[in-house]
Amino acid sequence: MKKYILDEIDHQILDILIENARTPFTDIAKKLVVSAGTIHVRVKKMEDEGIIKGSTLTLDYEKMGYSFISHVGIYLDKTSKTKQVISELKKIQNLTIAYITAGKYNIFCKIRAKDTTHAKEIIFEIDDIDGVSRTETMISLEESINDKTRLMHSIFREV
Fold it and tell me: Is 154 strand, coil or helix?
C-alpha cells in the first residue's frame, strides 16, 4: 500500500482541523498565508487518500448529564460468538466504544451513564447477551489524556 507523503502545509492544515474541524478554509488559508483554493485542494486530496475520514463533533457529556464513565471487559463463552456479541452490543446506546481484543478479555468497551445505577443497568444488559459468560467493570475516575494531536505530531516527525 502506497504511503501518502504529507508536507508541512498538510501538517499545519491537519493541526488546525483537529483542533476545530469546523474551521472555514478561508480562515485556514489566512493563517497559513496560502489561497483558500489551495486548502480546499489539499483537504480534498487527503480525503481521497483516506487520511481524513469525515469530521467529528465533540460533545460535553457532563453538561448533558452523562458524566459517569466505565470500561467493561467482556469474556465470551466461545470466541466464535464474537461477531454475534458485537452485533448485540451495537444495539446498546450508551456503549460508545468496543474493541475486539487479545489478552484478558475478548471484547473491551466504554460506556457512558448518568450515574452508578444507570451504569449497572447497562452492564446487566451486556451480561444478558447470549455468548457473554461474564464481565469485569472498571470505573473511570477522570479522563486525564485525550489528545488527538500528540500521535499526529509523532507521525509527522517520522517522515
Answer: helix
